[in-house]
Amino acid sequence: MKNKLTVLMPTYRRPKYLRRAMLSVLGQTYKNIQISVFDNASGDGTKDTVKSLSENDERIKYHCHSNNIGMLNNFKYAFESVDTPYFAMLTDDDLLAKDCYQDALNVLENNPDIMFVILDTVLVDEDMNLVGAGRSNNANQLVFYRDESRFDAVHSESIPLTCIAMVFRKEVAQIYLDMDDRFDVGSDIRFIFYAAARYNFATLSKVGAFVTIHSGSFSVVKNNFNLVHEGVQISRYIEIFHDERVAKPIRDRAVFYISKLLTSKRYKSMVVGAMIRLIYNYCKPSDLGNEIIELDIISSKDAGYLKTSIILNFLYQSAIIEKVVRLVLSSFLKKRSINNKLNLLELENGIYKEVFDSVSDIKLVEIK
Known about the structure:
about 375 residues, about 50% helix, globular
């Protein structure tokens, strides 16, 4: 297996995480790799971090923009550079299991009609403790999606939608360049939906990557009542619907998913999400928790849900309700949290032990 794989790594001001991510690529069992780092004018230790690794490894390429061109433009610039038979993406604060690319390329090399492969991911904290299990049982099971049902498959909860554990053929990169991501901060989801609408793919139920959850993570603060984001999600399906290169059955399914987004159940899920945050913040208050609750209150009002905003604000400000909730639920939530940690620890030392061992020597170290 000699075909080269390019790993696209857009980055901005995360040198110590970037170093760890790059080491996880350099340590892959598949060696015919090119790492392309795209620095969005970080102006910090990013350049020195890359240099410290590239001095002894010619597989690393580095490009630094003269000024910050924005996250999406930096990603698009990275996709424009793909000139090898295969490519993958790795965000600067995440890392790979050592066999990730070897496992994915085994599938692609033996199945010419499969255009990309999806492996599983797990969530870890900054100390590499498991904080979220993957969607599979790490059983190394291979499943192919070769008909129109593949579009529904990526909407199921059984398939991970994290790009860092995916490997693509070069042709798929054109989708990112063609799609309209001007207003889509989560353009990776648009890309995956579009790729599944156009191409056959496969899933391998084996952990290929670790997603790091920390205070600087992009998805830590999520707005429950962001109707603009709801509109962005709808636009993803509209774009697919109007693409004649997509088979009609899949275009029809795009309409189905638009209808789901327009139902009243969406509002109910927003309220449920906000209430869950309130309850957890009652029992374990934090500055970040307060920030999220306040964001929900403001955004629900801005979205036109005035009564909801008033109720949320009342519950947030009420010391009596907080005391009652803490009295009734604190013990239960604490016990649940302990059990969850024990279950995750059992997984980390059980079915995930080998994959955690594969990255045990990669540490967060800041280059000075």
